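Researcher: I'm preparing a figure for a lab meeting and need a structural model of a single chain. I don't have an experimental structure, so a prediction will have to do for now. The sequence is pasted below. Please return the structure as tokens so I can convert it later.
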Amino acid sequence: QVQLVESGGGLVQAGASLRLSCAASGRTFSSYAMGWFRQAPGKEREFVATISRSGIRLYYADSVKGRFTISRDNAKNTVYLQMNSLQHEDTAVYYCAASEGVTTTSSGRYNYWGQGTQVTVSS
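Model: Understood. Here is the structure written out token by token.
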């Protein structure tokens, strides 16, 4: 079992940056691949980024590639999402999730989820 708590969301103007954090507690953090997903009002949850257990493999949704960066610090049991050049279309609740060993873009393969943090980008 692992517990995930996201932080760092907020209201920003288009073009600004935010860094989301997801702190994990419970079982060994480094045994999980980690992902970020988001859900906008009236839309389905969508994949944003994922990082392998070691942090070597990274994958991004096309919509955020070049603007967002996922990283992790296994010593701090934390995964980050640096979001630059934010656009109104990035407005959503952002969730971090943990996958037991599998680095994947599929939300169904993630075993644990945080409660989400709201990101609102004004245009």
